[in-house]
Structures are given as structure tokens and as C-alpha cells.
């Protein structure tokens, strides 16, 4: 009973059937999944709780979702599309990332880039602006792959065949660790839905 009350207090719009609201989900995301901080998706550096240099990265970009749903820009989609709000609020697609790297990635797809051109020393995150693609560090690739594959299946969103093959390779090469499995359990407690790619 305590667990149910706790979940209802943290995320009423997620568990009570109301239209989800991403802005309401943000505090729940940080308090429940990263109460003591954690490690950023792209560089793997540790961050403290409520570190303002970090924000939420939607691994499957929300601009792609807006185009798929044909609901307009992000603000219009939030106003007019319950489905967009549900997708934007799904914590399986949300990871902490440094604000500057989140912005630099934008909506570029994930790929492998020839050579090693790290964005900065100690951060194995690469961007090819000419090809408009990014390459995450090996330790993040499985998490990214499982989030992308989950989103494609859960919401019938498109992933091109070439990228799907790459994501499946990353999923196999970087299997879920204990932290990712615990995160999956916590998100299930909040949303009532697991990412089956992690199981």
C-alpha cells in the first residue's frame, strides 16, 4: 500500500490515466531514478543530484516524433496531441545528459564514425556535422539501442533498416547491466510498463 501511495504522489498523471505531461514527469524522473546523481549518457562523467549542467535527453528525438505524428512543432504537439505527450513523457526514452552535448546532438541519428575524433579529452562522444550523425561511447550504446528499439516497438515509430541493424549490434555487444535493470524496474513502478529489451 505504501508503494502505491508513493507512486501516486510522484506521478499522478502517469498512473491515474490522465494525459501525461512531460513537465510534470521531469521532477519524478530526477527524484526517483537519479536521487543521488548518476552518470551522464554521453561522457559517463558523474553528476550530483540536481546538477544544472545536466538535462534530459530524449534518445529517440522528439522532433522525429512530431514529424511522424504530423502535429507541428513541439509546442503545438504538446497542446494538440495526447499521443505526443504520452511519448514525450515515457521515461524509458529519457536519460541524463550534459546540456551542451544534448544540444549538439540535436536530432542527429546514431552511427559509427570512422576514426576517433572525441568532442573533448576524456569524452568518447563524436559528432560528424557534415554527415549529421553522432557516435556515443561504447558503454552507452546498449542503453541507447534498447531505448530506441523500445520506442519503435511501443509507439510504432520508424527506425531505418540500416540504423536498426546497428542498434541490434549495439544491444548484443553491450548487454544490460545491474543499473539499467534497476532503472527498468523503477520506471515500471512509475509507468506500469517495462522496456522488454532490457529483460
Question: In summary, what is this structure?
Answer:
With 199 residues, the protein is mostly helical. 50% of the residues lie in helices and 10% in strands.
Structure description:
The protein has 199 residues and is mainly α. It has ten helices and six strands, in the order H-H-H-E-E-E-H-H-H-E-H-E-E-H-H-H. It has helices at residues 2-10, 12-15, 22-33, 62-69, 74-80, 82-88, 99-105, 138-155, 161-173, 178-191, and strands at 38-39, 46-47, 54-58, 94-98, 126-128, 133-135. Helix 8 packs across helix 9 (161-173). It is globular and about 45 Å long.
Looking at this protein, list some descriptive labels.
single chain, 199 residues, mainly alpha, two-stranded antiparallel sheet, two-stranded antiparallel ribbon, globular, disordered N terminus
Number of strands: 6
Secondary structure class reads mainly alpha
Helical element count?
10
Order of helices and strands: HHHEEEHHHEHEEHHH
Q: What's the gyration radius in Å?
A: 16 Å
Strand order of the largest sheet: 1-2
Measured distance between first and last alpha carbons = 26 Å
The whole-number mean of residue pLDDT values reads 91
Shape: globular
Percent range for β-strand residues: 5-15%
Domain tally: 1
